[in-house]
Amino acid sequence: MKKTIAIDGDNIRDISSFYEEINRVFMANENWKLGPNLDALNDLLYGGFGAINGNEPVALVWLNMEKNRADLGLDLTRTFYRDKLRHPETYDSDRIGKDLAALENGTGETYFEIVLQIIADHPNIELLAC
């Protein structure tokens, strides 16, 4: 039997509020929280801490997901990449520049699409859009 976990897209407006919702749902019983980081999200979905116990089957219900397609869409992603480019000492500017260029020419993924891909990379998690 799959564990059901639900996130509420009405609580999500941007990257910060996305992670607030992830922490509210997945990290409620932990004494620490995830920072706004895609690698941390990926690690969380492997299980072993938070709401997922290892490789257990999970039905992830994303309420109001279509609203978040826009919230975490093109404009937000463009800003996300531009902010990273302001810190070449921390981020790979060449890669980020290529990601931004791909986004601008219509071949790159939005933050929302990256999150969906991260979820899809975990075969034990079934994403249910509501």
TrEMBL record:
Pfam families: Barstar (PF01337). It comes from the Bacteria. Signal peptide: none annotated. Residues 4-75 form the Barstar (barnase inhibitor) domain. InterPro entries: Barstar, Barstar-like_sf. Coiled coil: none annotated. Belongs to the barstar family. This is Barstar family protein. It comes from Rhizobium puerariae. The lineage of its organism: Bacteria, Pseudomonadati, Pseudomonadota, Alphaproteobacteria, Hyphomicrobiales.
